[in-house]
Specification:
By secondary structure, the chain is mostly helical. The protein contains eleven helices and no strands.
Length: about 200
């Protein structure tokens, strides 16, 4: 029996949603630290370089950017038995073209390259004389990639849960700035939202 047929659809879609939840939370925290860093920045570059609080913020910002890039890159792959959109597309038989376009975008904008060279599964050049590039990923590119991933996830939820999926995401959107652990919160989203909606009746 293949991994495709063995994998329970509820588990696959739940774990995918939890991964998207981690990306959403990292994006929110990144924006918070971006704002705090801008508050500390001055027009004096030397002063900014000596500002330890600003240096710490920049380190944290870089970590969250890398986390988002790494998770998005993993989602854009298609290996069965791994947590990615391609596996889900084959399981549910939908969105194959959309996910291919998403994957192509991440490659075109160097997110996958940056993950492979600088973040995880690191590829190295054979000698010190060869300089490994360090591509810069703009905030707008990252925003589009995050939004696209959320849109793909919502479509999987729509197919699996029906039109009620909109209410699930709307309820969670109201709480997205609550810094609870994202993975279990989004994994259990259908159950938490259903309980809360029943309590309101």
């Amino acid at each position: 029996m293949s991994l495709l047929s063995q994998t329970e659809p509820d588990k696959l879609i739940g774990l995918l949603r939890s991964e998207i939840g981690e990306i959403i939370q990292s994006w929110i925290v990144l924006n918070i630290y971006d704002y705090k860093a801008r508050e500390l920045q001055t027009e004096d570059l030397l002063h900014d370089m000596q500002n330890k609080n600003l240096q710490l913020l920049n380190l944290v910002r870089a970590k969250f950017r890398d986390d988002i890039i790494s998770r998005l890159s993993e989602l854009s792959t298609s290996k069965h038995g791994r947590l990615n959109f391609g596996f889900a597309a084959d399981k549910f038989k939908i969105q194959k073209e959309e996910i291919k376009n998403f994957s192509d975008y991440l490659k075109e904008k160097h997110l996958v390259f940056r993950r492979n060279k600088n973040i995880a599964h690191k590829e190295i050049s054979p000698t010190w004389n060869q300089i490994d590039p360090h591509p810069v990923i703009s905030k707008s590119v990252l925003l589009r990639a995050v939004g696209w991933a959320i849109s793909i996830m919502k479509q999987f939820d729509k197919v699996y849960y029906g039109e009620n999926y909109r209410k699930l995401w709307e309820e969670e959107r109201k709480r997205r700035y609550e810094m609870e652990p994202a993975a279990p919160k989004y994994l259990l989203l259908p159950y938490i939202a259903r309980i809360e909606m029943n309590e309101k009746k």
